[in-house]
Amino acid sequence: MTGNQISAQTPDWSRESIGRYWDPGQKLMRALRRYQAARANGGVVARLYSKYWALNHLFWSTICQSEIHLNTEIGGGLRLTHPTGIIIHPDAKIGVNCMIFHQVTLAGAVVLGGHVDIGAGAKLIGPLTVGDHAVIGANAVVTKDVPAGATVAGIPARVISQA
């Protein structure tokens, strides 16, 4: 499947499904999604469920050594392939069907469009916006907006190809 066949608008929830007993990235996302759903429902039972899922989220955050705030706005289909060391600021917004590798940091108000792939060790320092179907290379340091369909790499990140 080529990159542009993955939708930047319609979430592919199968990317977050738990397929094995040990899928820490998917279990971390499940805890976050269920916490947000419980908080949105309101009521006494929902508050109890939200506490449970907050503890579950803390457990998987510790296992993954990652920090993704419980109220972060994340579109469906986020894939955390290797979820170790991922840091996402609470003001960041992640579009649908994105993929984030290990040791990635989204610092500040970073807005990712749909189907953005971020390579291992990349640092995005906001405020900035990344367009749909963009690719951020491994260890790139992004400090400026990235256009849709662009591939960026380097320190500081520069566009190396444009779809």
Structure, explained:
Helix content is 24%, strand content 23%. With 163 residues, it is α/β, with parallel strands linked by helices. The chain has 2 domains: 22-64; 67-163, 3 Solenoid (UDP N-Acetylglucosamine Acyltransferase, domain 1). The two termini are 16 Å apart.
Compact description:
This protein is an alpha/beta fold. It has 2 helices and 14 strands.
CATH class category of the largest domain: Mainly Beta
What is the CATH third-level topology name of the largest domain? UDP N-Acetylglucosamine Acyltransferase, domain 1
Q: Tell me the distance between the termini.
A: 16 Å
Query: In terms of per-residue confidence, which ranges show pLDDT below 50 for 5 or more consecutive residues?
Result: none
H-E string: HHEEEEEEEEEEEEEE
Helical segment tally? 2
The general outline is: elongated
Structural domain count: 2
Topology, element by element:
Blueprint: H1 24-41, H2 44-64, E1 67-68, E2 73-74, E3 87-88, E4 93-94, E5 99-100, E6 105-107, E7 110-112, E8 117-118, E9 123-125, E10 128-130, E11 135-136, E12 141-142, E13 150-153, E14 158-162
Helix pairs in contact: 1-2
